[in-house]
Amino acid sequence: MTTLHDAQRPLLVYVGACDEVPTYLRAHLDLEACTIAAIAGPNEPLPATPSRCDPILLIDLSALEDEPDLTETVTGLRARFGEGARVFCLTGATAIAEQLGALRAGADGLWPMTGTGTARYEPLTARISELMSDQAVRPRILVVDDQPVAALFATRVLEGAGMEVRALSDPFRVLEVIETFRPDLILMDLHMPGASGTELTRIIRDHDELVATPILFLSGEIDPAIQMDTLRVGGDDFLAKPITPQRLIAAVRDGLARSRDRAARTLAAARDIAWIDPGTFARRIDRIIAASPVGDPTHGLFLIDSEPAAEKAATEPDGRTLPHTTRIAAGLAACLEPTDSLARLPDACFGVLARRPDPRRLRRLGERLREAASEALNRDGRADRYQASIGLATFEVPADDALTMLSRARSALAEARRQAGASLVIQTPATARGRCPAHSAPITALIEQALHDGTGLELFFQPIATLRPMRGEPFDVSVRLRTTSGELIPAFDFLPAADEAGLMPAIDRWVLEQALTAQQRGLNQRPALRLLIQQGRSVLQDANWIQALRDQVLARDLIRHRPILRLSFFDLMTDPATAVDRGEQLRRLGIPICIDHLALSAEALNLATRLRPALVRLRAAPALELASDELSALIHRIHDIGAKVIIASIEDPVAISRVWQAGADLIQGNFVQPPGPTLDFDFAGMVLE
């Protein structure tokens, strides 16, 4: 027998022929809180379901039996399931064009599904949980309009979309009704007798507890200046009458979604702590490293994990349902100071950057963070059920970049997990930036083991963003050495040891082979992919290197997608005659070169003129020390020899503006995107002119 509870469960309908998706959702969503159905195509009969709530429809664009007209598919599904249905498209693509296509077809959004395993599905289940939470608690909407017909229209439309609506025709009672009804959103008319919507909004915004309540204006006013006034006084949006039911529902839902996002950020910003994005978090790590080249024991990087990483929601005291991540973030933020940073990282961890007077207080903070995360997961009082693990990497031992510091913290977190949770582990790094050769023996042993086993060396890719219109999607390739504990050692810290031990030729061969294989595979998803592959001094001295390179390019069918070889200026200067000869051989093969870290001297420019590179890479620091006219003249001189200019190690927007105005063609740095193990940068929209 169908109960009222059954009928009120949100209905989730997966449209596609991939069994893996609905199977995962059934295993990871709360089946007591929703009903999940799956159909192979938009016209297939739906299994009998008791739910009468507006459904959430997921169209898997990569798993439909026939390639559909998306607009017809979305329209047909809405006609079948009702105008209140929420329609979202699932795709493996992340480009803006695909997202625009979904929105123009009438979908409520497009959700990329990339990666594998949990990383592929965790963002999807989190979003679905949030949508179902919205349906479980009916949003309260206050309609303020003196026109009965207009108020009735808005009331019926929004009630039909599952919202609780109160209509108010007397503008002088607005504060009284707000106090008793506690609306989640206010739909405000503009022209009313006795008080305008603009005036009411000013009054509402004067109350601190109502500052964040969304206010949408709905009016037939056509004067743009008056419409703009509604936004200046605190309105969130202006909707023009007449309005269709679909547009009204979508606008109200968008307003509610923005409000929820602000509320989540407010919770996570307790004591003025901002919940920042991973890119900003990484850049803050880099700034700490740059400010403390010899190390800083007072700064710590914490990674906090919760066991298990479930898409679970908990009910707050006011009856609202919030994702468990928001509760954990709020608990962590309450432990922090205004100068600390909190971030939600892609691998289901929370990251915290904090500074304390001494290492002992950093450790004490780590214990408090662990307790706060565990408490946030155990609102039911069962403290033995979920425990948090935490890893701490201090800045006492210098690191090359944020990637290295994060790998140290992840290594500590992994050890904490192995200790069955509820523990804090502090990472001891395997090496430090600039460590002298006397300490290189352990690193040399790691390198030899990595070359022997074929594991331990890893490639990382950093996008090179274009500032001018040009073809190709270039990524720079760098190599890292992973220790047995999981720490990643950057090339700067282990290649000197490799050079001293005579291992550079083997490393160069490994990097070239692995990078060419990565380019071959990456072309399936990125036809315009170009990799800049670093090669060292040893290849210039090897007479057989050119033939070996040619054979590898042919073996991988990369004739039309040749890589770009990145050669250090200082290596080239050790034997300029041989360098010019190798450059000519590469040019005959159609393989361009990039001169790395070109010195700012006449001798360097003369060598570059003879080598005729396709690219020249300059480091940002010395380049930005030049006066604007000097930097512009240098870039134009490089352009005159037929090369494009990359400015590397860009860390802020001011630097981007300077080098763009000076004529640079491409930029690279953590401000654009830190190095990562995948080729996942969206080049669309990066051109500035």
Question: In summary, what is this structure?
Answer:
By secondary structure, the protein is α/β, with parallel strands linked by helices.
What is the fold's blueprint, element by element?
Blueprint: H1 4-8, E1 11-15, H2 20-28, E2 35-39, E3 56-60, H3 70-81, E4 86-91, H4 96-104, E5 109-112, H5 117-136, E6 140-144, H6 148-160, E7 164-168, H7 174-181, E8 185-188, H8 197-205, E9 215-219, H9 224-232, E10 237-240, H10 245-267, E11 275-276, H11 278-291, E12 296-306, E13 313-315, E14 321-323, H12 324-333, E15 341-345, E16 349-355, H13 359-376, E17 388-395, H14 402-418, E18 424-426, H15 441-453, E19 457-463, E20 465-466, E21 473-482, E22 488-490, H16 491-500, H17 504-522, E23 529-535, H18 537-541, H19 545-555, E24 564-568, H20 569-574, H21 576-589, E25 593-596, H22 602-611, E26 615-619, H23 620-625, H24 628-640, E27 644-648, H25 653-662, E28 666-667
Parallel strand pairs: 1-2, 1-3, 3-4, 4-5, 6-7, 6-8, 8-9, 9-10, 11-15, 17-18, 21-23, 23-24, 24-25, 25-26, 26-27, 27-28
Antiparallel strand pairs: 12-16, 12-17, 13-14, 15-16, 19-21, 20-28, 21-22
Helix pairs in contact: 12-13, 24-25
Structure description:
Residues 440-689 form the EAL domain. Keywords: Phosphoprotein. The modification 4-aspartylphosphate is found at residue 189. The structure is a single chain. It contains 25 helices and 28 strands. Helix 3 links the parallel strand 3 and strand 4 (86-91). The longest helix is centred in the middle third of the chain and has 23 residues, at 245-267. It is globular. Mean pLDDT is 82; it is low at 1-7, 268-273, 308-322, 380-384 and 432-438.
